[in-house]
Specification:
The structure is a single chain. The chain is α/β, with parallel strands linked by helices. The chain has 12 helices and 10 strands. The chain has one domain: Metallo-dependent phosphatases (Purple Acid Phosphatase, chain A, domain 2). 44% of the residues lie in helices and 19% in strands. A 5-stranded mixed beta sheet has the order 3-2-1-9-10. The protein has a 5-stranded mixed beta sheet with strand order 4-5-6-8-7, with no helix packed on it. The radius of gyration is 20 Å and the shape is globular.
Length: 256
């Protein structure tokens, strides 16, 4: 008899089960692109088609950061993102990832140490997506390259990337690049944690103030936990760029 009662008990709902975005709003969150302009074009087309089929709504697109590095066309991704922002205005928003942070420092500080780190994390591909040949790039030493970077990257690109946000809250969801520091209120979160944190966030077992949607940490496919959703599916290497879609209490995914 006791076993029968236990079997009829409902499973306790998690924050993810009850999370909602405001009525009338449809949100698409795009994971780390890392220089794959080809995949971004495909995913934007999928988003537009999906939204059209679902009918009228206030459609918003959020980029979770790391638009650049590793893949072959970071400059093209930034240019496409600028055009998308100009066309769709406040309905398109961007989060600053750790790769954007290093990119900006490398282009503005003329610092060999920063340039070396930028290259180590995938910045070489970004540099080569701007107007410099492989031959010329290889002939420059770190000091010369550091001096050259500000002339290679258009100021419009730097100003655009520097305008990216640290966190975005919509309904019961928090969108960040990497994660959040557990037990720290959202307004007090440090930008460095929002862009770089990993284990302290991923290993946390208690709930957060919001359901956290994040990139930064690569998974083979979408990673859903009771209070967080990871959507970085390693697009630059896997060819799989992922978007999380939200409307009311529903969620679904689009992938290239």
């Amino acid at each position: 008899m006791v076993l029968g009662l236990l079997s009829r008990r409902k499973k306790k709902q998690t924050p993810l089960d009850v999370a909602r975005v405001p009525d009338g709003m449809r949100v698409y969150a795009i994971g780390d692109i890392h220089g794959r302009k080809d995949l971004l074009k495909k995913l934007i087309a999928q988003i537009d088609e999906d939204s059209a089929v679902r009918g009228p709504a206030s459609t918003h697109i959020i980029f979770l950061g790391d638009l650049i590095d590793r893949g072959p066309d970071s400059a093209g991704v930034v240019e496409k993102a600028i055009k998308l922002k100009k066309k769709r205005g406040h309905n398109v928003r961007f989060l600053k990832g750790n790769h954007e942070e290093v990119f900006l420092k490398a282009c503005r500080e003329n610092n060999k140490k920063v340039t070396r780190f930028f290259i180590r994390i995938g910045g070489e591909e970004t540099i080569l997506s701007y107007p410099i040949s492989k031959k010329e790039y290889r002939e420059l030493d770190l000091e010369e390259l550091s001096e050259r970077l500000p002339d290679l990257v258009p100021e419009e690109h730097l100003e655009f990337v520097d305008s990216f946000e640290d966190q975005i809250i919509i309904g019961d969801y928090l969108f960040v690049h990497a994660g959040i520091r557990p037990d720290v209120a959202l307004p007090q979160q440090e930008p460095s944690d929002l862009r770089w944190i990993r284990e302290e966030f991923l290993d946390h077992r208690d709930d957060f103030e919001k359901v956290v949607v994040y990139g930064h940490t690569i998974y083979k496919d979408v990673k859903e936990k009771r209070c967080r959703i990871g959507i970085d599916t390693g697009a630059y290497d896997s060819g799989k760029l992922t978007a999380l879609a939200l409307e009311g209490g529903e969620r679904w995914y689009l992938q290239t």
